[in-house]
Design goal:
The chain has helices spanning about 25-35, 75-80, 110-115, 130-140, 170-180, 210-215, 230-240, 250-255; strands at about 10-15, 40-45, 55, 120-125, 145-150, 195, 200, 205, 220-225, 240-245. The chain has about 260 residues and is an alpha/beta fold. It has a single domain, classed as TIM Barrel, CATH 3.20.20.190. The longest helix is centred in the C-terminal third of the chain and has 12 residues, at about 170-180. The protein is globular, with a radius of gyration of 18 Å.
């Protein structure tokens, strides 16, 4: 079974790869995550001007590369020229160890090809990219090991049926949260898993009631973004399945061996 869908598994999910140590959403970050023992990846996908699905979180290039402006305004060939390691600094700007190291923005297909056995949570950042994502998953025979999720319900329209697997979008999580809090949880869930933030507007999201209600519906709960070992252990004790983290080595070392 895909560990992302297993209620009893406790996967360590690398958030944009091992993004505390290497440039987020790059092959370098995903490779390091594998070396640190991650069980799955989480990544973000957007559309280029010429219709390619590329792995990048922001809708602009400014924060993570040496280029600027919208991702959608660039062709894939133009994005290939971006230095995706340009901005990462471990010491508040004193050094930039990944600059000029040929770290590039990968396509979704490149990540799936480079790590053929790895389960992946794909965050579809915009509805317009879903057809490109669908095509990549089918052509790469990767649909069964991937879970597709989004904050935008419209971005999941092409993934409602097999062989695709959908993770819960915001409205579904909100309904389950309210129902669990009022002890009237829904009797069914349209999604195979829930990926939820640790806190939202100051409120804890993966409460015992929410986790219990989700598990009763057969949906494992994965929590992002957790970089503290003690917090991860508390969540696992609560019944949470996966921990989405920037530091896979830290969280993997904290994972209980049994129980």
């Amino acid at each position: 079974m895909n560990p992302l869908l297993d209620l009893e598994a406790r996967p360590v999910i690398a958030h944009r790869g091992a993004s505390a140590y290497a440039p987020e959403n790059t092959l370098a970050a995903f490779e390091l995550a594998v070396q640190q023992g991650a069980d799955a990846f989480e990544l973000d996908v957007r559309l280029t001007r010429d219709g390619a699905a590329v792995v990048i979180h922001d809708d602009t290039l400014d924060r993570t590369t040496d280029l600027a402006g919208p991702v959608r305004a660039r062709t894939l060939a133009e994005l290939r020229q971006a230095d995706a390691g340009h901005r990462l600094t471990p010491d508040r700007g004193h050094t930039f160890p990944f600059r000029h190291k040929d770290v590039r923005i990968p396509t979704l297909a490149e990540v799936l090809w480079a790590f053929p056995g790895m389960p992946v949570m794909i965050e579809v950042k915009e509805p317009e990219v879903q057809e490109a994502v669908r095509r990549v998953l089918l052509e790469g025979d990767a649909a069964e090991r991937c879970v597709v999720a989004s904050e935008h319900l419209a971005a999941l329209e092409l993934f409602r049926q097999e062989p695709f697997v959908c993770g819960a979008a915001g409205p579904e999580i909100s309904a389950l949260y309210r129902g669990a809090t009022l002890r009237r949880p829904p009797r069914e869930c349209r999604y195979r898993l829930l990926s939820v933030p640790l806190r939202w507007h100051g409120l804890p999201v993966p409460t015992r009631a929410l986790v219990r209600a989700a598990r009763a519906l057969g949906a494992p709960v994965h929590v992002w973004t957790v970089n503290d070992a003690a917090t991860a252990r508390r969540l696992w004790a609560r019944g949470v399945a996966g921990i989405v983290t920037n530091v896979p080595d830290v969280i993997r070392a904290a994972r209980p061996t049994s129980g």
